[in-house]
Write a structure and sequence with these properties.
The chain is of the alpha/beta class. The chain folds into two domains: about 5-225, Spore Coat Polysaccharide Biosynthesis Protein SpsA, Chain A (Alpha-Beta Complex), CATH 3.90.550; about 240-330, no CATH class. It has 13 helices and nine strands.
């Protein structure tokens, strides 16, 4: 187990049912050759359901592949993700969300890229939205190919994050499961400022890509769900946390990238908050206004006047958002 190429790390909490999908999607792809190169590591954030029993089933059946670590207490999302990298044995790590899964033949494709591009710090994967059973596709895959001269459409190599941004207009991937990250590069970065948020993977990728290459695999390899039907995402500040955390990161990371990259990332997350504001108010979901205002003051760069707009919209009446949402749904085909 000393020459492992890849650790598929699953940070989990109370998802014993969903984690079976994730584990099966990995195990089904591991032939004799891949078993010598891939490990599965579950980091259990002190679950209170039968997650341990479920994982034990897989450990008994695949003792040479599956490892299990249980935290004595719930460390929070980002500390548990970081724990995956600390415990991993592979050169690269995919932090796979416990309710996501791989598409068929995803792992051989990822390993082929890692073999061909050993200098990368990050590999980004395309993903596809499925229903709650992960059987029926609900949307087109994300990361649709952006042609780059001289490179095959199924994959694109960029020497660093700045080059990637200049050629694609993008820099970061949002979902945890769409990141393959060089383990030692992750461990070299100081990520402690991001332990209390939910975007440690994006912060790590942004820092790593300052000096490392990125490869983008355009073929969709990740299945994901987004429904909050079970009310799982009930933490304070939902659904704005993701973009506020990234705003706070970019506010404190001006030195990492040129001003135009910083501005573009900042504006992208402001748009994300505005979009979530539209959906939240249109659906008549309550907003914790004191917390929202607190996050604006903490996260926003006051040299950009957009922070004033966010506060004003938080206190605005709902009916303009309801009308705007209805118009948007008519304009965008389903």
């Amino acid at each position: 187990m000393n020459d492992l190429t890849l650790t598929v790390g699953i940070p989990t909490y109370n998802r014993s049912r969903e984690i079976r999908n994730a584990l099966d999607s990995i195990i089904d792809q591991l032939n004799a050759d891949l078993r010598s190169r891939v490990e599965v590591l579950i980091s259990d954030n002190a679950s209170t359901d039968d997650t341990a029993a479920v994982v034990r089933e897989y450990m008994n059946r695949y003792p040479d592949v599956v490892r299990y670590h249980r935290n004595e207490r719930n460390l929070g999302f980002s500390r548990n993700v970081h724990n995956i990298f600390v415990q991993a044995r592979g050169t690269f790590v995919i932090p796979l969300a416990d309710d996501d899964a791989f598409e068929a033949a995803a792992l051989p494709k990822i390993l082929a890229v890692l073999d061909a591009h050993k200098n990368v710090g990050v590999v980004y994967l395309a993903s596809t939205l499925y229903d709650q059973t992960l059987r029926r596709r609900l949307a087109r895959p994300s990361n649709s190919p952006i042609p780059v001269a001289g490179q095959p459409v199924e994959g694109r190599h960029f020497p660093n994050g700045i080059d990637y941004f200049r050629k694609t207009g993008s820099l970061l991937n949002s979902m945890l499961s769409t990141h393959v990250i060089h383990r030692q590069s992750w461990l070299t970065e100081d990520l402690t400022p991001y332990y209390d948020g939910i975007v440690i993977h994006e912060c790590a990728a942004a820092k790593i890509l300052v000096n490392h290459a990125v490869f983008v695999i355009d073929k969709p390899l990740i299945k994901y769900r987004t429904s909050n039907a079970e009310g799982r995402w009930t933490f304070p500040g939902y659904p704005f946390n993701f973009h506020f955390d990234l705003l706070q990161f970019w506010k404190g990371s001006r030195e990492l990238y040129p001003p135009d990259v910083h501005r573009a990332q900042y504006r992208e997350n402001i748009r994300g908050i505005l979009y979530n504001m539209l959906l939240t108010k249109a659906d008549k979901t309550p907003i914790d206004r004191p917390l929202f205002v607190q996050r604006v003051y903490e996260s926003c760069d006051k040299s950009f006047p957009s922070w004033l707009l966010l506060i004003a919209l938080a206190f605005a009446p709902r009916f303009p958002f309801i009308i705007a949402s209805r118009l948007l749904r008519r304009m965008v085909p389903t």
